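2.7 Reproducibility. Because tokenized structures are sensitive to small changes in the input, we list the exact sequence used for Diguanylate cyclase (GGDEF)-like protein, including any N-terminal residues retained from the expression construct. No trimming or masking was applied before prediction.
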Amino acid sequence: LMLEGKLRSVVAEQRLQVHYQPKYDAMTGHIAGVEALARWFDDDEGYISPEEFIPLAEDCGLVGEIDEFVTWRACRDLMSLKAEADLTLTLAVNFSPAHFIHRGLHERIESTLSSTGFPGELLEVEVTEAVVASEEAHLHEYLNQIRGLGVRLAIDDFGIAYSSLSRLKQLPINTLKIDRSFIRDIGDDSDDEVIVRTIIDMAHNLNLKVVAEGVETHAQLEFIRRHGCDQVQGYLFSKPMPIDQLKVVLNKEN
Ligand code: G
Ligand code: G
Ligand code: MN
Ligand code: NA
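Resulting structure tokens (single pass, no recycling of outputs):
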């Protein structure tokens, strides 16, 4: 309850921070984009993980405000990078399913895009498989409205919730991010290697881009490159970082 009160004020006062984790082209190794991740540093408690405060925010109705704040802040931050370095990085943001499946969300995304000047074509929204499984009658329409802004849709943590493949094929989705639990066991668990290979092949057959998250070792990288995964993300390359540090990383790349 105390944490909920703190969360309410940190959200109201816009004191949540946003960190960025690069995604790399698996073949060239160049930075293709970044994922924005909410960060909470509390004066008393120190760092509080989103694994703790996002579920809390979902329960107390704050998550929509958080997701939209992170999107706005990240669009603004990347526009400031663009002004300095003429970059065309893609930006991925995470949306909670409960908040994502709502009429009118596309209008608020559109207003964030127009107020920051960030191009819709460079924005990707990551949602979990719960969205694929949703029985919301207007789901298809809502997704199309967001796609209508040029914004791309990714399924995050893919593979753990048994998405219906026919549903996946019907919905206007662009990208699958293979859950890091499958990447973790590459080299140790041949079942997970089969799953990773199968997801990559299936994604490509459905004309979807595929991203491996949680890549921590060269062996994992080699494996997913060999099987044609499009992008990689993970501690092997870089952890989420504040915007100032991202600037340094990007300057080194150029
Ligand atoms: O960044 P970290 O690995 O600690 O994130 C833990 C979880 O919190 C991940 O599932 C991530 O998707 C989620 N998360 C991080 N930032 C946001 C956010 O801005 N909105 C939502 N809905 N989830 C987020
Ligand atoms: O659920 P989602 O994919 O949005 O979670 C993103 C979070 O995953 C990031 O905030 C980051 O903290 C975490 N993450 C990113 N790369 C790695 C990695 O290589 N290993 C582990 N264990 N966690 C990672
Ligand atoms: Mn994500
Ligand atoms: Na993920």
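The radius of gyration is 18 Å.
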